[in-house]
């Protein structure tokens, strides 16, 4: 169990360091779509390591593409 916690922590750290905010958002949307129903956008932005304003811009950009 501690090994799984370590792996998850390492993966999250790598995502924060190496993925662009837009990519982190898309990954979260793909892997955990229920987050967006459970949590406020300001908390999701914090989890992604961005400001709520940046999250809003990312969401607007993606909605214009679809």
Quick structural summary:
With 66 residues, the chain is mainly alpha-helical.
Description:
It is a single chain. This protein has 66 residues and is mainly α. Helices cover 82% and strands 0% of the residues. It has five helices and no strands. The longest helix is centred in the N-terminal third of the chain and has 17 residues. The protein starts with a helix and ends with a helix. The relative contact order is 0.13. The mean pLDDT is 95.
Question: Main traits of this protein?
Answer:
single chain, 66 residues, mainly alpha, 82% helix
Summarize the helices and strands and which ones pair or pack.
Elements lengths: L1 H17 L2 H11 L3 H4 L2 H8 L3 H14 L1
Mean pLDDT: 95
Largest sheet: none
Low confidence ranges? none
Q: What integer value in Å does the Rg equal?
A: 13 Å
| DSSP helix fraction | over 70%
Shape: globular
Secondary structure tally, helices: 5
Distance between the termini: 40 Å
Beta-strand segment tally:
0
| Class derived from helix and strand content | mainly alpha
Percentage of β-strand residues: under 5%
């Amino acid at each position: 169990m501690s090994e799984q916690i370590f792996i998850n922590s390492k993966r999250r750290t790598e995502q924060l360091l190496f993925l662009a905010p837009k990519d982190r958002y898309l990954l979260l949307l793909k892997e955990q779509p229920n987050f967006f129903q459970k949590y406020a956008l300001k908390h999701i932005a914090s989890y992604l390591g961005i400001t709520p304003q940046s999250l809003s811009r990312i969401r607007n950009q993606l909605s214009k593409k679809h």
